Amino acid sequence: MKTQLLLTFTGYDYIDDVIENIKSVYTLSDNRLFVLVNKKNPKEAYLTYNVVKDNYEETPSRTISVHRKKETNTIYTINAVNQAILDEVGVYDHSFDINWNQYRNSILLTDDYGLRQIPTKLDSVREI
Predict the structure, then answer these.
(1) Cβ-based neighbour number of residue 83 at 10 Å
(2) What is the largest CA-CA distance in the chain?
(3) Which of 80, 52, 56, 85 has its CA nearest to residue 68?
(4) Fewer beta carbons under 10 A from the terminal one: N or C of the chain?
(5) Model pTM above 0.85
């Protein structure tokens, strides 16, 4: 069974509604959702969960595919890793070893301004 890690952005007050929507769209591979909050703005929440790949027709809004570095609990997109490498060495050098500790307990994304690091903390694990 192939799985895919997804991240859904939401406000903290809307977590339960968003979880209901996720349950209606996806088959979760392990029936768990991880609720992360932004350390700098606890009203921002992020739900991460593994879904059975190709078992859904459309992705809900505000949801992206991500990866996770387990050792440092870093959630990231491929574009963010490429941007981190570019920022560090000035070129896209895929042989460069990223110092993941500097991104511990964070979400790495890119936006119009470059690399964006969101410091997070685990709020809860929801069994569904």
Answers:
(1) 20
(2) 44
(3) 80
(4) N
(5) yes
